[in-house]
Amino acid sequence: MANGARMCTRSAFVAGSAAVLAAPVAASARTGDPKELEIAFPRMRRIADRLWLGRLSRHVWVHTTTHDLGHGDDYPANGAIVVHGSSATLVDTGWSDTDANAIVDAWAALRMPPIATAIATHFHTDRVGGIDALAKRGIPTFGNPLTIGLALDNGHPAPRPLHDVEKHPHTVGGIEVFYPGAGHTIDNVVAWIPSDAVLFGGCLVKATTAPDLGNLGDAVIGAYPQTVRNVMRRYAAARHVIPGHGTIAGDALGHTLAMAHAALPAHA
Ligand SMILES: [Zn+2]
Ligand SMILES: [Zn+2]
Questions:
Q1: Which of 22, 75, 121, 155 lies at a 20 to 30 A Cα distance from 149?
Q2: What is the value of pTM for the model shown?
Q3: Cα–Cα distance between 214 and 195 in angstroms, integer?
């Protein structure tokens, strides 16, 4: 992709290494199998080589899509679909138009309430990559106004603005969109589903299996710990926390906070 650096993934992963390249491919490997991190939870149903879908709670489904970052390294990213009444809201689009179309088609095949609206949680490809495909199907995507310029500057499609979301949360399709401050990126928002006490943390929040904070190329390290604390304080009641990449398990917020602290300069 043209803007390969503008993703949430580990730079070392993109760079590859002799050890990785020399590793034998397991006989059971299938195109699209996630590498390094996992799909969101094991009982998700594999819809296609690069798409998994599973129900997490009463109103919340999770999608995982994998994307080849080069070297055959298929990296997984999580999003969500939230059902309220007769319609559904998509949280994050997958990496591409292909992913977004696959998600919407799979959802329709399950005879679920149609996806009426989408939310993008920051400007990187794994969040906004499918906005154009959604628009063609009549599904508008909304996001932080800050996301618009950042996406366009990086050659990505941009969402429509949730005006002043940096000052007060917005509710979209029964989902609270909250801007906790800068961290993974300056524009990252989280999505809270109060009906199910589920927090979609996006790429601000790291899976407990993630070894580091991932791509920090657009991060605001000095603000990261306080931003995570803002999320922890507001959503202390969360029963599930969905990270942007990898498994839903354990104390993802606590793990992220510890890594954010460790990333601070020694004098901070
Ligand atoms: Zn990102
Ligand atoms: Zn990401």
A1: 75
A2: 0.90
A3: 30
